Amino acid sequence: MFVVLLTYVKPLPEVDRHMREHMKFLAEQYAARTFVASGRQVPRTGGVILARCASRAALAEILQRDPFVQHGVATFEIVEFRTSQHDPDFAPFADGGKR
Question: 2-83: CATH homologous superfamily?
């Protein structure tokens, strides 16, 4: 399981110019069942994505296709973790769950 931290490196108006493309990218990754949850940080300095992927390298390759990254308005950090405890409803997404 991975937590992706997106950090905006350009002003919000520039980030917003690429939002529609970014949302399409997110939808594609949800359809591929790579992303589990996502949303804005509060305050709005970036975003957070909960992802599952075969490896950190594979996820980094996917994230390089994010329009935010391609247009240089955001950077990302990947944090890998092993789910040792979780709400039972989260089991399909946790490590060891069906992928």
Answer: Dimeric alpha+beta barrel (3.30.70.1060)
